[in-house]
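Handout, section B. The chain below has 351 residues.
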Amino acid sequence: MSSRPTSLVWWMGGSGFGSQLNLLLMGYLYALDRGWAFRVRTSDWPALGHLTWTDFFAEPPWQECGTAEWRVRLLVDKFRWMPLGGRQAFSSRIYSQVWARCRDEQEFSLPDQGIHGTTFVACQLLFRRIWQLSPRSLDAVEQEKRRLGLSEPYIAIHVRRGDKASEAPPVALEQYMERVADCDMGEIRTCYVMTDDHAVVSRLRAGWPSYTFLTSCPPEAGGHEQATFNELPADVRDMRTLAIITELSLAFAGEAFVGTFSSNIGRLVALYRGVETTYSVQGDLQLPPGRQVDDGGRRWVTMAKGQLFKRRRNVPVPPAPFIVVRWYRRLIRRGGWAATLAEGLRTRVPL
């Protein structure tokens, strides 16, 4: 049997919502580029509590990797020396290859997918393809628009605080408002502020009274901490995931967007909107069409920060289904390499 992979199994783990979606897009593009089948395991993603991907979005263009199948695939991955082990690639093993191909701007030509262009162009098409909201999400977006009174044209601003300070220094609000003024949007004086810290909104309202600042951020919010979020009850995580989907959808609909490259959320908005009305407070003010591959353009179109995320620790694993237990016992009785395989299964799955 050939040892060349024919599928990529992608694991969505414990980092933030925007980070996981950006990584997912790179993995999906890499699999398409290689002609591999693409399977995704989303059930370990903290953004999903009791709800699943299809509660927030339409059916995805990949297949979900279920719990029993995931355990078997982990077992196969452990025994890569066997002929069976080379038929699939795991995201944890090929990050370096994915980044080398998809992190910086390179050219892709995938006629069957309608992709002809740079990494940015390819990921933009894929992101717009998967960002198809479910009725639950669409209803949440419409309710929030009515609650805020977002009937007039507005400019979306994203200001990330919280644990982001450990990755990149905070950007002064004056720089954001300079970019808002440079958007040249005429008489638009309404700004929709995406932020995880309500103090940002208070400072904006106090410092620029000629503008109207609307936000979905609750008054008690004091900054997002991903580690804290991961430990929240499942129903609370579901509610907050719906909130970030709502905020992103409102940012997509604004007349312009002002944000930072150091935020994965900023990159997602740039992907969905395109670069013509996307403004960065770091480096170049705006990326005109055709500049995605020069030094200024890379600030917005690079698809990853180069950081590995860690698997969640201390997560209880449910007992193995009966079919796995029966398979294990049959392998033990067979002896030889089958018994060795069974012992590998025992170390991965609580039988």
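Note. The first helix runs from residue 17 to 34. Compare this with the example in section A.
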